[in-house]
Amino acid sequence: MRLFFLTPLAALALSACSLTPPLVKPAAPIPASYAESAAPAATETAADLGWRQMLLDARLQRLVDIALENNRDLRVASLNVEAVRAQYQIQDAGRYPAVGANAGGVRQRGADATVQNTFTAGIAMSAFEIDLFGRLRSLSDAAFARYLATQQGQRAAHMALIGAVADAYLEQRLAEEQLALARQTLLDWRQALALTQRLHGAQQGSGLDVAQAEGQAATAEADVQARERASLLSRNNLELLLGAPLPTDLPAGRPLAGQPVLTQLPPGLPSDLLARRPDILQAEYALAAANAEIGAARAAFFPRLSLTASLGFASPELGDLFRGSARSWSFAPQVTQPLFQGGQLRAELQLSRLRKDVAVLQYEQAIQTAFREVCDGLAGSATFAQQIAAQERVVAAARQRQRLSQLRYDAGQDSRLELLDAQRQSYAAQQALLDARRDQFKSAVALYKALGGGLEE
Question: Is pLDDT of 16 > 60?
Fold first, then answer.
């Protein structure tokens, strides 16, 4: 009787054999350093910076807080983690015996017309598979690796949400500042149109000047409408990411010229990406799951030993059911050896190997993608500052030209067409400067995310 209780535990101890091949990760298919990073690697990388240290705008920080609390995609990612964890627990439970209590009674009439009663009560273990070749252990390992991969996917979604909110906020700031510039320009050009019309009425200007001024004012009016639409669309996109309407008590935001985002980030080394980037870790766990499934497919070729057993009481009289003489037990081991399945097991093994090959390529691709994203961010970090400095000089020169053209036009030395061209050039230069500043900050956010930043607050 005691041997019966020890048998499952002993079987579990003996089921240490595993046919899962050793997991050998491929070498990272990237250089050892970033070509764009001439400076030596810093001891602290961008991933060590909390997102509040990266996003300097108090309004943007509040928006990120709201998004992390309410965003539906992030909630779905969190629920997926819980669902896959439950799947792992279900799979892992198959490695242990399922024991249940039962009680019942049977009353039947035999061939000799006698009626017999049988009452039973006890505990039973049904078809418990002793994992001699590690099939169940491999399946459990694969399920656990998938759970860890999903967990990393949730972390990647967390980082992606912070980056998306920052991008949407920068788009909104750009739209608002360009709208303000367009409205001020429209006001100036309408005043110029009114002055031109008065001069024409006083026989001091031509109809051509009036037509040019009207066309210029109409162009500014159309641009105002386009900027208003861009502002509304950026607000809608931001509210979608937040999962809630924009609050009315948000703190004032920084202008694009007020550095809302940190732009100088220490990149570290490419090898840091392997431990920092959740998408790379997700691909690595997916590779581990595919490798474990090979072990399960190999073990399927070998015999399976299962146990069915029960221990309890059986008696023809209900009152005598729990007497010592009514004790009963059964022990039924069964061995199953696959003989012919039409090539199914070999196909399953081949499929598991192919899936591992795919997982290897996806792991390498994740590393290469991460490396490229960092290089793109470093390229932006190295060039945007000089581009913006040059664009600021363009704006200053355009404003100077506009001022001088206005003086020459007022003095009758230049035509209206020259003044219009100077005004348009100044307006376009200012809009381009706003675009460049937005692009600089978006590039910095992309680099921060590419380096694995955004998980810490």
Answer: no
pLDDT, tens digit, 9 for 90 and up, residues 344-384: 889 989 999 999 999 999 999 999 999 999 998 999 888 99
Q: Measured on CA atoms in the order 26, 27, 31, 33, is the torsion positive or negative?
A: positive
DSSP collapsed to 3 states, the chain: CHHHHHHHHHHHHHCCCCCCCCCCCCCCCCCCCCCCCCCCCCCCCHHHCCHHHHECCHHHHHHHHHHHHHCHHHHHHHHHHHHHHHHHHHHHHCCCCCEEEEEEEEEEECCCCCEEEEEEEEEEEEEEEECCCCHHHHHHHHHHHHHHHHHHHHHHHHHHHHHHHHHHHHHHHHHHHHHHHHHHHHHHHHHHHHHHHHHHHCCCCCHHHHHHHHHHHHHHHHHHHHHHHHHHHHHHHHHHHHCCCCCCCCCCCCCHHHCCECCCCCCCCCCHHHHHCHHHHHHHHHHHHHHHHHHHHHHCCCCEEEEEEEEEEEECCHHHCCCHHHEEEEEEEEEECCCCCCCHHHHHHHHHHHHHHHHHHHHHHHHHHHHHHHHHHHHHHHHHHHHHHHHHHHHHHHHHHHHHHHHHHHCCCCCHHHHHHHHHHHHHHHHHHHHHHHHHHHHHHHHHHHCCCCCCC
Burial class (CB in 10 A: 0-12, 13-18, 19+), 326: middle
Yes or no: say if 255 and 56 are a contact pair by the CB < 8 Å rule: no
More confident residue, 9 or 172: 172
- What's the pLDDT at 222? 92
pLDDT in tens, 391-431: 999 999 999 998 998 888 777 787 777 888 888 899 999 99
Cβ-contact 34, 306 below 8 angstroms? no
pLDDT tier, 3 (very low <50, low <70, confident <90, very high otherwise): very low
* pLDDT tens track for 107-136: 787 767 787 877 777 788 787 778 788 888
At 407, list the tokens.
Answer: 């003086």
pTM recorded for the entire structure: 0.83
Which tokens belong to 455? 């998980």
